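Running log. JK asked me to keep both predictions on one page so they can be read side by side. First protein, sequence followed by its tokens:
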Amino acid sequence: MNSKGGMQRREKLTFLNIPHNPLKYSSNVPLLIVIVGPTATGKSELALTLAEHLNLGIISADSRQTYREFNIGTAKPSLAEQRRSAHYLIDICEPIQTLTVAEYQQQAQHLIATIHTLGGIVPLLVGGTGLYINSVVRGLKIPQVAPQPMLRSQLQQLGQIQCYAILQAIDPISAQRIHPNDRVRTLRALEVFYVSGQPISAQQGETPPNYPILYIGLDCQTADALKRRIEARTEKMMALGLLAEVEKLSHKYGPDLPLLKTLGYAEMLQYLAGDISLATAQALTVRHTCQFAKRQRTWFRRNSDIEWFDADAADLGDRVWRRVQDFIRNAGGEGEREG
């Protein structure tokens, strides 16, 4: 649950119009609050601020924060932040391991169920990894087939045209859903079939949870506003020692470690290899992060249940808090002030 590094303490939001003493959730009605949105919009800060006024268990939905030692480049909550509220699904596996979506889903669902049995605690799922979020809130049925690197390599040698033709023959339902040029999903469908003996289409579906869910989305009004946030966070990561972190991880695990090919790490590796300047590496980190944020926005905007809030609004904390209180009351809960 704890990390050995992470970002330094973030600037705290404030709730201006409510007492500081926390609200105790006294109902036995199970609930879930979800905070989503593009990277750098302040999801973690909002979660921590909410936790100071409501007993929350914060469950990370960030695919990179699950890995130990990857701290600065993943904007992982610091130890000080983790002491402010309980955090889960952070630092749960080694960098050389692979955490599948099915494994994440299983752990997240178990945590939520456990928190519900404790009483007085509301689980809060927060992060920007859309598939992680959907695996929980939509109850995705995920084939229990781990990645098969050797099989994938053999299939890739056949080429996408041949692989897609095979998919059409063995799983025509999936072939209708997958674009002929979508190599990743084609390979996954073939992988599942050859390992399990069943089409992936027969193993998919949804079983949504039966408890009320509040979806809160954070975003900026303009792309320029989000870019400024990304630039500021990248600057902060550099000041905290991102380059040293990448150098240490590269020496320990080798530059070919898949996690070192992700945002922030890949660009710094290019600098360490002498391919680009440090200024260029930082600029590329900003550019690639902006591109990633655009994809996140597209993903989350498909969900009409998400209630969006301006990440830069001066009264963000108050507006979200009022919505949380309404949600608790409407779901059958009664808020009681401690003390």
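And the second, directly underneath as requested:
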Amino acid sequence: MAVQTQDDVNLSAVKTAQKANILSLFTSGSTLICCALPATLVAIGSAATLTTVVSNFPQLIWISEHKPLVFGLAGAMLVIAGYLQWQTCNAPCPADPALAAICTKTRKNAFLVYWISVVIFAIGAVFAFIAPYFV
């Protein structure tokens, strides 16, 4: 049985945080599909396009009807990803220069993906919960 070094554990934690961030990106993307896409298509006068999209992907109706659930799951995933991101932000990278470079690059990419997810979530929330009061 192989012995895990501290470097392996730290690199594993960073990769886990990156996977959680990518999952949060996909869940945040669902908030855009649910609310921002239909609102944008209607706003630019493409109701026929929206009708075509809904007829080809009827799941959009279910997602729109259950937007509190969609936003709740996406928000929970963002919280989990944010916690994992925070947990690994100060973890040391391996001493080996090649592994240290991979660790640093992975950490930066995970941080970028996380904040892109947060922005997508915020845009979806604006279209789902705030914009209807102004239309």
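Observation for JK regarding the second prediction: Residues 15-133 form one domain.
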